[in-house]
Design goal:
The chain is built from 5 helices and 5 strands, in the order ααβααββαββ. The protein is elongated and about 55 Å long. Helices cover about 45% and strands about 15% of the residues. The longest helix has 20 residues. The chain has about 120 residues and is of the alpha+beta class. The strands form 2 sheets. Strands 1-2-3 form a 3-stranded antiparallel sheet. Helix 3 packs antiparallel against helix 4.
Length: about 120
């Protein structure tokens, strides 16, 4: 998406497509693997998530696209996709920023940002 900003309309279509795919994947999961699937969902943002996304934007530490993502997506949990993928809710991100602060990006004293790290599937 080089040069193109993330849009709410695109995210709505993406959420629908991914949710359909996750439903298809989990429908046969237990029969194929012998145990029930974990949480595999994209949760749409609720008003609290959207307020937190605005608070993140005010911190001026996140790109406009990340704020747009959090304004539309509350969190992502794909426990059974690959090694597992998770995007924490923005209120959790704000809490970590409050507790630990922003991190430097190594390019100078003024360059600060968020760290998005992978989590193990045993989360």
């Amino acid at each position: 998406m080089s040069g193109v900003s993330l849009s709410s309309a695109w995210l709505a279509v993406w959420i629908s497509r991914v949710s359909d795919s996750l439903q298809t994947m989990t429908a046969e999961f237990e029969r194929r693997h012998g145990f029930p699937p974990g949480t595999n969902q994209v949760r749409s943002a609720n008003p609290d998530d959207q307020a937190a996304a605005r608070a993140l934007a005010e911190r001026d530490l996140a790109s406009a696209d990340l704020v747009t993502l959090y304004d539309n997506i509350g969190d992502i949990a794909w426990a059974d996709v690959g090694n597992g993928y998770f995007v924490d809710p923005v209120p959790d991100v704000l809490l970590r920023l409050k507790e630990y602060g922003a991190v430097g990006d190594g390019t100078g004293d003024e360059a600060r940002g968020l760290v998005i790290e992978p989590f193990p599937t045993s989360r």
